[in-house]
Amino acid sequence: MQKKFILAETDIPEQWYNIVADMPNKPLPPLHPGTHQPIGPEMLMPLFPMELIKQEVTTDRWVGIPDEVREIYKVWRPTPLFRATGLEKALDTPAKIYYKYEGVSPAGSHKPNTAVPQAFYNKQEGVKRITTETGAGQWGSALSFACSLFGMACDVYMVRASYDGKPYRKMMMHTWGANVYASPSERTDAGKQILAQDPKSPGSLGIAISEAVEMALQDEQTKYALGSVLNHVLMHQTVIGLEAIKQLEQAGDFPDIVVAPFGGGSNFAGISFPFLRYNLAEGKQIRCIAAEPASCPKLTRGVFRYDLGDTIGMTPLIPMYTLGHNFIPAPIHAGGLRYHGAGAIVSQLLHDGLIEAQSHNQLSCFEAGILFAKTEGIIPAPEANHAIATVIREAQQAKEEGTPKTILFNLCGHGHFDMSAYEQYLSGKLVDHEVTQEEILASLAELDTPLIDAQ
Ligand SMILES: *Cc1c(COP(=O)(O)O)cnc(C)c1O
């Protein structure tokens, strides 16, 4: 009988893993949006506490996790690793499938893994309030939870379309004591500028970032936090992969393929970077695959160049695979994957051929998620369904080839707040949105930022 739960005695890691130390080509520096010169730490100081700025640029391989943070991690870490025996059987595949389940955190996703240390370092440096943006509400709820633990105020700019359409995440944030504002709002110049053009603007992540950054710049005791993309955020998430290595060791296994859904790159980095280290340092050949939506395909169809992180132009230029910062993806239900760009580290790794990417249509993702729910029980977040679609593709490939591959994927969150999306799928109302090449080219044509090199 195969063991289903590999919760094990795994301890919570004592250090985060920083892949920059092992990258053959280091990530390129962020640039000032006006001068196009590399920015120094002083430009980030109004936005982030010093410790996070140091983590953003460090080349140390291991960074210690503060005891206070590990103590809070104990609420949901170590997270369980499961063998997906039910899914394997349904697919009749020789592949072994494992998944790490991050939906057991208080916010229901991997996001608290970085929200807690970010709140901790802000608190340590005397910050009183943190501003942020949120799309569907996962990141906003994780940061609200973390701020409540440290007694800090939290202001969340929530994309208007989600604010109106997905009220339960908003109520979660309120429960943890945060203030939630529909974005674009009248509270900021950025919001007013957008509303002047379009009073009914449904908002976007890029606009909400502009608003949150603007508010942080106005007050010395207020700082800003980002839930993905940045180097320190990706590093905080490596607790996922570090635990998985030990848990798989106890199962007597090691993956050939590691898969995660991809928004800005944090949960993909979290599960895959500790495994990529074996490739970079020991010449192993684990395939690490990022799964993205066909409606927001920055990795598979975007270009590698400098681009803004937001809509208005308040952030530095980041070297990223991007669809252009004005790209507005179709309103698919995987809200966490609707960002226009990928973080600098993941972009460099993709450019160097060290990781892979696949895209999936919305309907095939829900089909995959429902098969998973029926065979494994857990109802996945719509984002996680993208990883499951890739896993199924790879498991079927293994069957055709007759090779007993071992596949590990990140089940980054549960879908309990996304039931209206499942309802729409089940009642046949959901549609696919494949973006056309003309749309991508039109969005990219608006960029005047530095190209990185020949594609
Ligand atoms: C935010 C989020 C994502 C996408 O963000 P990454 O930084 O790419 O991990 C994916 N899944 C869930 C459940 C999320 O909350």
UniProtKB/TrEMBL annotation:
UniProt cross-references to PROSITE patterns, sorted A to Z = TRP_SYNTHASE_BETA
Kindly indicate whether the keyword Lyase belongs to this entry.
yes
Might you give the EC number(s) for this enzyme? 4.2.1.20
Tell me one GO molecular function of this protein.
tryptophan synthase activity
Q: Protein name, please?
A: Tryptophan synthase beta chain
| Name of the coding gene | trpB
- Residues in a coiled coil are none
Q: Where is the Tryptophan synthase beta chain-like PALP domain?
A: 76-413
